Amino acid sequence: MTLTDDTAPHSDRPFLIGVAGGSNSGKTTIAHRLAEMMGDDRLSLLKLDSYYNSRSEEPIEVRAAANYDHPDAFDWDLLNDHVAALSAGASVDVPIYDYTNHDRSDDFETVNSTKVIVVEGILVLWEPRLRERFDLKIFVDTPADLRIIRRLQRDVAERGRTPESILDQYLTTVRPSHERFIEPSKRYADVIVPEGGLNRPAIEVLLARVRELAG
Fold it and tell me: Cα 113 to the chain's mean position, in Å?
């Protein structure tokens, strides 16, 4: 794990953390560990997956075939607006995504401004406007074989998909997008965590550092 010393909040606004990495790299595990450490009253979590573009006008066959690992799949304007609002002390209504229908649901989750705000997702270090907002940028670096195994386990168990469809999606969209967009964004990270949530020593060092920086 590489950690620089020039990661510190610049004002009394919330301390902003970006957690990026490949699909199923362990980003969510690390984000949740941060949330457990800080507590719900001190840390708010935004997930990039909540900001997939609405595709309600498209047939479900088209939605199912879309590349959800490409930057164009996300509503960056809304996410940036929400991060700006939270930084200013306001609350935001975050969309809830329906993975079964490949579209936003009609429901929202209200997220309040807190001392620490974590934005987690595959491309949060790729988007320049968002990246510039972060006080601490983390990249979770996990080998591809582990990531695809975790994806198979998750999508079969939680999303009712077949192994064949998962592997086809991985080869046609997930892997190419990772190599083109996600992996190159690692160069912007202040902290690189190998093995993701399996790297307990690195996570403990990271948690201690966040506690020190965020106060």
Answer: 18
